[in-house]
Amino acid sequence: MTNPAIAAHALRKSYGDKTVLDGIDITVPEGTIFSLLGPNGAGKTTAVKILSTLISPDGGQARVAGHDLTTDPQAVRATIGVTGQFSAVDGLITGEENMLLMADLHHLPKAEGHRVTTELLERFDLVEAAKKPASTYSGGMKRRLDIAMTLVGDPRIIFLDEPTTGLDPRSRHTMWQIIRELVATGTTVFLTTQYLEEADELADRIAVLNNGKIAAEGTAEELKRLIPGGHVRLRFTDPIAYRSAALALTDITHDDETLSLQIPSDGTQNNLRFILDRLDTAGIEADELTVHTPDLDDVFFALTDGTGTPNQPKEAVR
Amino acid sequence: MSSLSLAVRDSNTMLRRNLLHARRYPSLTLNLLLTPVMLLLLFVYIFGNAMSGGAGRSAYIAYLVPGILLMTIGSTVIGTAVSVSTDMSEGIIARFRTMAIHRGSILVGHVIGSVIQSVMSVVLVGAVGVAIGFRSHHATVLDWLAAFGLIVLFALALTWIAVGMGLVSPTAEAASNNAMPLILLPLLSSAFVPLHSMPGWFQPIAHYQPFTPAIETLRGLLLGTHIGNNWWIALAWCLGLTVLGYRWSTSTFNQDPK
After folding, report:
1. Which end of chain B is more exposed for a tag (fewer CB within 10 A), N or C?
2. Are residues A28 and A58 in the same domain?
3. A249 and A187 share a domain?
4. How many separate domains does chain A show?
5. Domain boundaries defined on chain B
6. Within a domain: residue A101?
7. How far apart are the C-alpha atoms of B225 and A59, rounded to whole Å?
8. Beta-carbon separation of A77 and B1 below 8 A
9. How, if at all, do strands A157-161 and A80-83 pair?
């Protein structure tokens, strides 16, 4: 059996009397995408900071690429690339200079450094902006430059801390494409996100982090099955159809204002067929039908129900 | 790669980064030059008659310039404190910390860059001094070399202190405030008026603070005045502040970032 890319056991970190990570275990097999999902303040960034050697844990052990975090951080650093939540680019110099700086710090020969720089700037669609100061870049461009810089050293393991937070939908999809390409070449990706959708799109495995603890772990499908909160929403324009639908279906939530009904649903084919059959039998046609799968709020509330610590504000310090 | 050649290579890379910043954005450095230049012109042309005590303008210029030159270093390193503090708040430093590079190179790059900037600033302010009539008639080549060495050592010492100040300052404004004593200290030295014209109780303070011995040594080297024990007090200050600033900066930098 090969070593996992990341293996952490009982990681703990506190700032003052505030426990940010309360003993988390993480295993990420090589060549997979692992996503740490959680709200602001859950401890995601702290986990990334510890695993990427930026800060040291108060307790627990972790091995990254087989190297111990505490005893051999320099060996860990040689195999990883990190793109933090706040863009780690030098805004005062140009995109190209940022890339060459990385090449120099990875001790690439000059020609090689230029080759890699040109290649990555092209791959990330930054050729036009290459000679402009990075501070003038848009959010999406900065993030692309950030990842391009991370890739200069050809890292085997990449940490991405909320890589799409604050990006517009197009940039977000570009970023997802980039992340998929990374894994296609065998790179391991450790991703944090607040969006279930993102974890769903990308990750092989997802761990939900809440108040410094892993509340649940599994594939996206496994997690969603754990969680209630999925529903089907029917919208009507005809008040009569709306009322008859309300009579034909059970366990519904009304919204008389918008003439819409909400029916709990796990989103499976059988369940949808059941609802549609009911409507057909009653001869009702809805103007719009939407299926809502659980989102992060549902996941969060479901997984922390009764176990969450009520006194801790949601946007506590990371 | 051996750890020494790694350290040299990474420091060199970091130095080039800092010099690139300085070249792209020279306004901060140039602004900081204004203070010593303005004080030089102010004291020569406005207060000159009162200050020189009738000895004449050119004599007072000669007296003033060595102090102004060292004050220029104090002023330049305020910029160092500000740029270190700004730099530390940038994500790029977090990136450096997660790379397999020589950790000290980040600070060393700042320090060497700042010393180079200090020396260039001293040359510029010196040129203003020469333009308004400063002349060194007595200095030999050896004296000039020693003066250059003193300026470099003094810049190195103040830079390490400024780097420490920059590291502990949460914002650029705080860094600028914290580093303020470095430009105020020369006002309490023998830069503008001789020690014996100060109140008796204050003279020892003025005499033994870092600037006065360095100023007296530079004066002696350039103008042939009596240096006495000032040269080794100046040297002790330079070495002491360098070691102190180095220790303070590296231990602060090696702590986990917030």
Report:
1. C
2. yes
3. no
4. 2
5. 3-254
6. no
7. 63
8. no
9. parallel
Separation between Cα atoms, residue A37 and residue A193, nearest integer Å: 5
ipTM: 0.87
Chain A contacts in chain B segment 101-120 (CB below 8 A): 101
Torsion of CA A162, A164, A167, A169, to 10 degrees: -150
A165 and A149 within one domain: yes
CB contact under 8 A, B20 and A93: yes
B137, B85 in Cβ contact below 8 A?
Answer: no
CA dihedral A98, A101, A105, A108 (to 10 degrees): 110
Q: How far apart are CA A249 and CA A232, in angstroms?
A: 12
**What residues make up the domain containing A72?**
6-89+137-226
Distance to chain A for B71, nearest Cα, Å? 28
Write the Ramachandran bin of A60: left for phi over 0, alpha for psi from -120 to 50, otherwise beta.
Answer: left
Give the residue from B5, B98, B110, B255 with the most A CB atoms within 10 Å of its CB, the best one to mutate: B98
The first and second tokens of residue B120, run together, are: 């260039």
Q: Are residues A42 and A142 in the same domain?
A: yes
Report the CATH number that the domain containing residue A202 is assigned in CATH: 3.40.50.300
Q: Is residue A147 part of a domain?
A: yes
Q: Is the pTM of this model over 0.90?
A: no
Check whether A229 has a pLDDT greater than 80.
Answer: no
Please report, as a single letter, which amino acid is at residue B85: S
pLDDT, tens only, A276-298: 898 888 888 888 888 887 665 66
Other beta carbons within 10 angstroms of residue A86's beta carbon come to: 16
Interhelix angle B141-168/B105-131, nearest 10 degrees: 130
For B124-159, the pLDDT digits (tens) are 999 999 999 999 888 899 999 999 999 999 999 999
Instruction: List Cβ<8 Å contacts ≥24 apart for A123-126.
Output: A123/A148, A124/A148, A124/A178, A126/A95
